[in-house]
Amino acid sequence: MAAQDLTPQLRTRLGRLEKAVGWFVTLATLLMLGGLAYYVYHLAALKGWFVPKALYFAYLESGAGIKIGDKVKLMGFDAGEITMIKPEEPNSGENVYVQLQVFGDNIGYIWDDSILKVKSAGVLGSRYLEVTKGGTRSTTDLHATYKMAGGRITSVWSREQKSFINWSKGSAPYELLVDEPPELSSQLDAMVGMLKVSLTNILQLTNSLGRTLDNAANATSNVNELLIDARPLIRNVTLITDSLKQPGGSLGEWLIPAAMNQQLTFLLTNANSTVGNVNATVTNANTNLVIVFSNITVSLENLASLTSNLNAQVQRNNNIVSSVSKLIVDTDGMVQGLKKHWLLRSAFKDEKEAGGTVPRPKNAKGAGRE
Length: 370
What we know:
This protein has helices spanning 8-47, 184-245, 251-255, 258-316, 322-340; strands spanning 53-60, 71-74, 77-87, 96-103, 115-120, 127-131, 146-149, 152-158, 163-166, 174-175, 177-179. By secondary structure, the chain is α/β, with parallel strands linked by helices.
């Protein structure tokens, strides 16, 4: 039906409907374009299109379990991605060349002591790369790998020149040291080899254990036979021990008969009495000697006092003849000599203990002088 055939009311309603459909299509188109723009922006943010990117490379033993586009971790977060994986030349001495790029602020965490670690991501052999945070060594000689200014990279650290050099987009990437353990399959192969060796040793051990058990069975049978043969000996020992329990058959009476025991008792009693008598005799003799030496000491002290008094009187009296004086002096010298004799030396006390010095007699020529 042509639009001219419609009534004015229908034509008005149809025009409104066409406008609504047009606005809807326009709005849907704008929403689709907005969603596409957001997707492109989000993808660009994930790819790091709007942030600076620093290139790094490393050499691996094997490229198994990793692929281009895999995320690179830094402290557990996604910090970059792998951009290139290729084998090295046969004569280069290296196996696999891996290039990766790190985005934005993550570049500041990577210093010259950072290490690229290869870690296992599961039991199926997959692996991933993780860069360790730099600046952890206990030294002051640490440097960042890249310097940034104004949101872009300006210089890179050179290990050869020991300084920062200018960087541009065509510059070579920075090399990272690698910590790569053997891949899971190699570890499993090594574990299987160890299990084979262990099983062989276990089998040998079981064989040795079987032989040991056989020897133990033979030994127990021999011990049983030995115990059977030792039964008479055990019975005899039992009889001997029973005899030892009785007074009439004790071991002491076997070794020392009753008659010898009486003689030994009598002999020891006499010896004890003799030792007591000797001890008493020695004690009495010691006491008598002490008394004798005490009496001698008293007598000698009295004689010394007498001679000293006589000597003093002679010295004071000028009328006594020189012969008497000489006799007294000689007698005093004899007493002094007896005091120095080895047998009577201990009987005299020290002059200091006696309370003073004993006056010595003067010679004959000065006997009459004071």
